[in-house]
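Margin note: ligand = zinc ion.
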Amino acid sequence: MTTPDMPAAPVQQIAMVSCLNCRSNFDVVASSFCGCIARERTFACPRCGVCACHASYSQRQSFLDGAPAVLHERRRRERTEGVGRLQATDPETVQRPFALIVDDDPLVLAVAERAVRAAGYSTLVTSSPEEAFHIAAALLPDVVLTDALMPRLDGRELCRRLKSSYWTRNVKVIVMSALYRGTIHRNQAFKEFSVDEYLCKPIKPTVLRDALDRILPHIARARGHMRELQAAS
Ligand SMILES: [Zn+2]
Ligand SMILES: [Zn+2]
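Resulting structure:
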């Protein structure tokens, strides 16, 4: 029993979740975030060491739907502190080639992320174009893949900002759009906003892959070379 002048002992909280990889149960309150370069890191399973950063969008959603309140609180904090943490990250530690993907539609993010990863890139996704600018300035991605029409900052404008900043001017930018589909918009994107590639939505993985290979041919060549080495061994 506690009296008013005696502080209550802190309540030891435990929140068990099931690992998406090995299915063993672990306590997320006691677990640390993983070491991935991510906008929002996930928890590393103490048994197999695998985090949920590479889980699919639907897998993550169903995991979060059943997650305890304490986990949502830790995620909320992670979201608020995420950009500052990334800005303090040394770009040399990022696994290359590295792509930053910006879209406010989670399903587009999921499709684009899968295609870009299949092309051998490590990825970081965000739904905020303003945040994307700060992350890009800190981590210098090889490519930024962004939606054109987003609230607050148009993806084409994000591209113009990146191209007009000394630090980020060499970052390649692919703009995707469902709305501005005509030739006029396409030409305008190249001329006025200095995009490197302009793609119409819905995004086809093969089209995205070809666009990446066109603007970053040295990465495509390195991937081809890796395949040859693997085939030969
Ligand atoms: Zn595990
Ligand atoms: Zn992770």
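Residues 13-88 form one domain.
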